Amino acid sequence: MLRKTKFNFPIIDMKTTIYATITSFLFLLGCQQAPETKEQPGTLEDINLPTAVLVIHGGAGTIKKENITPETEQAYREKMEEALRAGYEVLKDSGESCEAIMKAINVMEDSPLFNAGVGAVYTSTGENELDASIMRGNDRNAGSVAGIKTVKNPILAAYEVMVHSPHVMMAGQGAEQFASEQGLEIVDPSYFKTDRRKEQLERVQRVEKEYGTVGAVALDAAGNLCAGTSTGGMTNKKWGRIGDAPIIGAGTYANNATCGVSATGHGEYFIRSVSAYDVSALMQYKGYSVGQAAQEVIDKTYELGGEGGMITMDNQGHVSMPFSSQGMYRGYITAEGEVTIAIYKEE
Amino acid sequence: MLRKTKFNFPIIDMKTTIYATITSFLFLLGCQQAPETKEQPGTLEDINLPTAVLVIHGGAGTIKKENITPETEQAYREKMEEALRAGYEVLKDSGESCEAIMKAINVMEDSPLFNAGVGAVYTSTGENELDASIMRGNDRNAGSVAGIKTVKNPILAAYEVMVHSPHVMMAGQGAEQFASEQGLEIVDPSYFKTDRRKEQLERVQRVEKEYGTVGAVALDAAGNLCAGTSTGGMTNKKWGRIGDAPIIGAGTYANNATCGVSATGHGEYFIRSVSAYDVSALMQYKGYSVGQAAQEVIDKTYELGGEGGMITMDNQGHVSMPFSSQGMYRGYITAEGEVTIAIYKEE
Predict the structure, then answer these.
(1) What is the ipTM for the molecules in this complex?
(2) How far apart are CA B164 and CA B143, in angstroms?
(3) Is residue B292 a contact partner of residue B28, using CB atoms and an 8 Å limit?
(4) Would you call A172 and B172 a contact, using CB atoms and an 8 Å cutoff?
(5) Do residue A242 and residue B177 have CB atoms under 8 angstroms apart?
(6) Alpha carbons A229 and A215: distance in angstroms, whole number
(7) Residues in chain A closer than 8 A to B278 (CB atoms)
(8) Phi, psi dihedral angles at B283 (to 5 degrees)
(9) What is the pLDDT of residues B297-341, one digit of tens each?
(10) At what angle do helices A275-286 and A14-33 cross, to 10 degrees?
């Protein structure tokens, strides 16, 4: 049975404690003695940040209530709750955070509602190329796959790269071969094709912005963070384009000393901003809280030109989910199993 | 004619000046008021860091004097000087830093001595798969290619991705097609094959560590930094493995507010450490000098398990080239055209 995570971290190691102490001290220092840095608007709000064991996103973009039917909205909310509960099942039995985020992401990969797994968007040549990455916070090990076309659940392939290979990142057919050798389910490329995404390609070949990556961050009873991201990439992408989702430091990052992050947005700008790691760096080096750090990174990435959002969770379970787009499918579940789901900006 | 860069930055914009001021202030703050952080051994040495306009590396690894013939050593030194002078020709005529690093890297790509371009190492299936990336510090635009087999000079392909595509990263055949569309020289995959690297594959399939990436960082008369990295990856690599070289933030990073970085080493650890960006983060958020920041990142990456090194240059031209391996091919050229080359640890 999972108790309230905020007061329940028996296995946090000494290094983490020292980091936390230093971070806390730097935080005080930052507030009191560093007036030359920019204002820190998040401070007060951070006190009221929700605490959770699992947070997910289903992508950011031009998501407005007037463009979505009540039935579609309901479908998204139900599927996100299902994803949260799938991950929660792992966590409440003292399972590992990486296991939990994979279960949650699998639900979204297997749903055509999201741009990951089945339902992935189409490349300019009408194919589906999938990317995913995972990182765990205790040992900062990581795994990533890019440009794969035949692995049913890309997040599982990323996990296999992390735990069963000497590498961090694999691409294309080599990655597919590795996933197959690890016994993962291989599907025909046609499995990923859905009419909705095909129509979207035709629409997007005109305009539209939607960054339909999915991702999750979890904190388990042992105090370990894990973050993961899975995507079909950008609609109409060309030339073997790789976005931020499979890039450790850009789309995904986790470190028990600070936080876990999964980003979604205009990937090129998230790569150039090294967005996911930058949240951790601001916490570790400047003593920012997770809410301050995440908001600053989303603001900086937007200033550089990149719209999008991210879900973040610090090593005490505090959740922050800032975004610069119209909306972001997002939600979290507390240690008590209470689910919160939101889609639009005003929620 | 290029004057001494240290006193010659007419076109640094206001933002850079503000950053520099904040950085300087934070540096003082860091020295005087942050005793809780680890010792800062680089401080005194940094005062004596050399100043240059271009710095290059030709890879790090188990490079010991007793294993290299005088003739081979001389060949490396001459080729590195040639690379430095090729980049310098651009800079002294007020050319752009990205142009300079490409010229320098092209010399090393075209030489079989280095694991980049011709002379690239072999994958486990006997192929040559090349990666490269570039980032410029004024607008933090970036380009990267991974797993390409037919582009003669991969660093040029990375540049084309940066300036002539909406993307940052491209992989495989898509990247090759894009490079071809941009008019870059395409070669048969056999062009990259050399007997020396083939023998090395056979040897390495037993033991040996060598991280033969090449890279360069330059600062031009306009005050703009640019960094680039090009590699054949890791000998005996499998499954479409991608290392740190094409990953912005891991192998390559540049920001006029802080520094330019090109890394070489056991790429998996450099990805997990987000090594290149971390140098910039330590400078920007903790006020470290480039020498302190680079040394700390190399130390931290080594603690995580990753041997290697990096070349770094701050926005005043100060050069630092730390490494944790036995040796690193490295060198720089000053604004006056004076060349310094080093290979071994004791140099």
Answers:
(1) 0.85
(2) 10
(3) no
(4) yes
(5) no
(6) 4
(7) 277, 281
(8) -70, -45
(9) 999 999 999 999 999 999 999 999 999 999 999 999 999 999 999
(10) 80
